[in-house]
Design brief:
This protein is mainly alpha-helical. It contains 11 helices and no strands. The two termini are 33 Å apart.
């Protein structure tokens, strides 16, 4: 367990530096190894192209008054979301970290990805509708207001991670969503936690609630791309199109986040098949659960500190 925890701690210096020191990580994927660096750079180039397509379709709607470009706007927004989520961002890292270190069902991974994306879309719509629509604030003020949701998001991520870490340490959270019947007479050491029948039944529900809470916390931070689209459509009397495009963008983000999360869950399942319910398997699952909770807590705290020191700046 100490080896796994030490490995987790070694992953954070670059993240801490990027979060606490402004201006770092400006090049998309510049700190990634090949071929990931090329993939991320390609994704950003396509994202810029889609952003231009969005603006062209919106300009055509504004100038002609025709609703025909709306389908192109929504399609471009969906693809923008897919490739936008490829780039650096804490959301998919948190969700992937959860599924890599805690046993869960595939359906829960898909639901968590959708929750994160839809909350992110809804937060962008709410902030623009309230600040730019109701209060008629300038775009700079809207972006500043959205930045405070970023701080709240980081704080919630750290809090949920801390709760799950405490539950794992105290044996109340095993990081194993039991989706099949167990023989309760099996060796207690083979379980991923030392718990009795009561905790055995309650833990899966608690894990699901914590997962969905993490997903909602991730999504609370609005996407700046969605905010800009909403501001443009609101200014030109096309806010309904902006709302539809924002949710389409969220669905695109959900597709990419779900794919990454499922890859992490597959890694977890490989460990499960390799060690099964052996005593070693139980110790590995407990160590992974603790490492995952610690990683989520550290990420939340580091990003929260960076946002507080450098000021909120939603870009996700």
């Amino acid at each position: 367990m100490r080896v796994i925890l030490a490995a987790v701690l070694t992953l954070w210096p670059s993240l801490a530096s990027a979060a606490l020191v402004p201006g770092q990580g400006a090049a998309p994927g510049g700190d990634l190894p090949e071929p990931l660096r090329t993939v991320v750079a390609w994704g950003f180039a396509l994202q810029r192209q889609l952003n231009g397509d969005l603006r062209q379709h919106l300009a055509a709607m504004r100038e002609t008054g025709s609703w025909e470009p709306a389908a192109g706007i929504i399609a471009a927004a969906f693809l923008y979301g897919v490739f936008h989520a490829i780039g650096p961002g804490h959301g998919k890292v948190v969700i992937a970290g959860w599924f890599a270190t805690r046993r869960a069902r595939i359906i829960h991974g898909l639901v968590a990805s959708l929750i994160a994306a839809m909350v992110q879309s809804a937060s962008a719509i709410a902030i623009v509708g309230a600040l730019a629509g109701a209060l008629a604030l300038a775009p700079r003020a809207v972006m500043a207001g959205a930045g405070w949701l970023e701080i709240a998001s980081y704080g919630m991520i750290a809090a949920v991670g801390a709760i799950m870490m405490w539950r794992t340490i105290t044996g109340r959270g095993c990081g194993h969503d039991h989706d099949h019947a167990h023989d309760h007479g099996h060796d207690r050491e083979a379980s991923c936690c030392d718990h009795g029948h009561h905790h055995h039944e309650v833990a899966p529900e608690v894990e699901r609630k914590a997962l969905f809470a993490v997903a909602a916390a991730v999504g609370l931070r609005p996407c700046s791309g969605a905010i800009l689209v909403l501001l443009f459509t609101l200014t030109n009397g096309l806010f309904a199109v902006g709302i539809a495009a924002t949710f389409a963008m969220g669905l695109g983000v959900a597709v990419t986040v779900a794919a990454i999360g499922m890859g992490a869950l597959g890694l977890n399942r490989l460990i499960e098949r390799r060690f099964g319910d052996s005593g070693m398997g139980g110790r590995i699952r407990a160590a992974l659960a603790l490492a995952g909770a610690l990683a989520i807590t550290l990420m939340g705290l580091i990003l929260l500190a960076g946002a507080l020191i450098n000021g909120p700046s939603p870009t996700g």
